[in-house]
Amino acid sequence: MEASDFDDFYAASFRRVTGQVYAMIGDLDEATECTQEAFARAWAHRRKLDKAEYPEAWVRTTAYRLAVSRWRRRKRGERAPDRALQDVRAAAAVDESHVALVAALKQLPEAQRQALVLHHIADLPVHQVAAEVGVPEGTIKARLSRGRTALAALLADESGLAGGGVTHA
Amino acid sequence: MPEQQHDPIEELSRFGAGLSTGPGGGEMPLSAADVRRRGDRIRRRRTALVTGAAALAVAAVTVPVLALSQGDAKRDDTLVANDPALSVRDLLADADTELQVGRTGAFRTSETTQGDGQATVQVCQQQKLASLGASNSITRRYRYVPEVVAGETPPDVVGDGLVETVAQFASPDSARSAYDRFGAWLRDCPKPVADATDARVIPARAADVPDGSEAHIYDIQWKDATGEPTIGEVGLLLQDERIAIVAVTVYGASDYNYLPEDGGSPLDRMLPKAAERLRPGGAAAPAPAPSATVTDPVDAPAGTELPDDLPLADGWPEIDGDGSLEGPARDQEPFSFAPCGTDVPDAPEPADRITARWQEPEDFRGRQLSSYTSAAEARRAADAIVNAYRACPDGPRDDAGYVSHHTVADGDLGDESWVLGRSSTFDGAPAPGLDVTYVVRVGNTLLLITGAGEGGGSDPAGDILTTASAMADESTALLTSLCRFAGSTCAG
């Protein structure tokens, strides 16, 4: 992948991937930072990326994994988040209606939330979600079914949203 | 019905559509060029990744009783094993080191010193170990051997890699006191390196070490002068009357690297081995077999006719449209060397020879295998080349203003080996372009592995080591076959 190709890829995919990661983790600043780091790693591993069938999926998976890893580490050690990248400005707030949706998503189990985001937000077919997550298609279908039901209940019950705002995942 | 008011699929889809058509995902904090620059740093740091000692140590001016490569491990032991309490066998061997999961032997010993010397050694150390009651201590520095991707420019290597100090005390209480004191120094460490910013020490975590030992790992995070995030891991290990301090610094690493589910941090993996080494009696644990143990060549049982099926061109990248592969064949032009403009004679005359060359516009690789009537003859052929390099550290300035420089270092392949490097400077500054030759004697054969490329522009010494390491990795199959053919015990 040449620099110009990467720049086009970054410009076309950054917001989308950031939004998807945000939906998965519920923290826009963290999603922005992890996505940025994932793109940097994508450039560092561009030979590998050239061979990837879906480069955006590679970046998304990397960003999500980074975010989860950071969250786990902070949870385990109560560490302050490291700022690997400089100049991460406060990300612009997303549409207000999306805040409630993301807050509801945060109430779901991680696996259900991931399946919902990949299938309904990233618009991936079930088999591709299964491939990206690394579980059988049947498992994804079950997670989608349970996730949709749970999400509907959470959206219906505004009081079910913890604080109604976005906190660190 | 609440569900009728909030269709989750519709909400999710709307969110997804907003990401594609609107500002949904938020702003891009960095430009694509900035992200690429960050990626380039990651790549360089990922493969170079480390300095430990150089960044962390406080100019240890110690007496280098030992400055040995891995291949000298036996001499290493002989010199220090007279001390019944502590020996170099209590230190991590090269094969014990592991930076990335599963890649053992990531570091090579660069220097082993005894005693405190004139300065403290470890990061945040405020007093010499002798001041804490240590009756003896040994410190070993290791340099990182970065992973090199075939066909790519070797990464930068910054300084040394890893440093371990082991110390002996008069009693367990004394060792415990020193262990606690060191921990306090680390907890209160204000600045791990002079130009660090945003430094902070993460509360220590207990390390998983064998029974009878106690260990804690301290993570110190900071940003270097360029703003690059850096993690310095320091492991403290207590075992009866001994302590060990192991420190590694990882540039370009953030707090999401080295998670337990990924195999843990370098010290998570190396401290248990350090504990085994430090354990009284653990010194008897087998050290990794030195790969260069033959000091007086002896005649090998092998014949002089080289097998046709030796994989002389194995491990090289595929040739693309602009490249060429010549050989392996017996009718190839032999390699020639002329440091300082003086041709090195091709003597003694080989009994048999096979040569292969791989060439692309900016890279060259070559291998030449020669057999001789005896191991001593093979050694003489090696000496002719090695001594010519030694005799010419700096060549004359050529017509274009470039000055060639030649270096010789011990290698760790075959029965004995040397790494020859040639780099150049222009107006005193390193200039791109270097070539490296690994001279490897195996029994009565001499293998020359050579490579040339555009490295050397910023760190010639590091590039030479990196190139040599990459060439060695590429030649694994050949060396294994050669050791077998020559009847040598070398591992290849």
Automatic annotation (TrEMBL), chain A:
Keywords, in A-Z order: DNA-binding, Sigma factor, Transcription, Transcription regulation
RNA polymerase sigma-70 region domain mapped to chain residues: 11-76
InterPro entries: RNA_pol_sigma-70-like (IPR039425), RNA_pol_sigma-70_dom (IPR014284), RNA_pol_sigma70_r2 (IPR007627), RNA_pol_sigma70_r4_t2 (IPR013249), RNA_pol_sigma_r2 (IPR013325), RNA_pol_sigma_r3/r4-like (IPR013324), WH-like_DNA-bd_sf (IPR036388)
GO biological process, one term: DNA-templated transcription initiation
A GO term, aspect molecular function: DNA binding
Residues covered by the RNA polymerase sigma factor 70 region 4 type domain: 99-151
PANTHER family: ECF RNA POLYMERASE SIGMA FACTOR SIGM (PTHR43133:SF50), RNA POLYMERASE ECF-TYPE SIGMA FACTO (PTHR43133)
Family designation: Belongs to the sigma-70 factor family. ECF subfamily.
Protein name (database record): Putative ECF sigma factor
From TrEMBL, chain B:
Top-rank taxon, per record: Bacteria
Lineage: Bacteria, Bacillati, Actinomycetota, Actinomycetes, Propionibacteriales
Keywords: Membrane, Transmembrane, Transmembrane helix
Segments traversing the membrane: 47-68
Region feature (Disordered): 14-38, 279-344
Feature: compositional bias, Low complexity: 280-292
Name of the protein described by the UniProt record: Uncharacterized protein
Source species of the chain: Nocardioides simplex (Arthrobacter simplex)
Keyword Membrane: yes
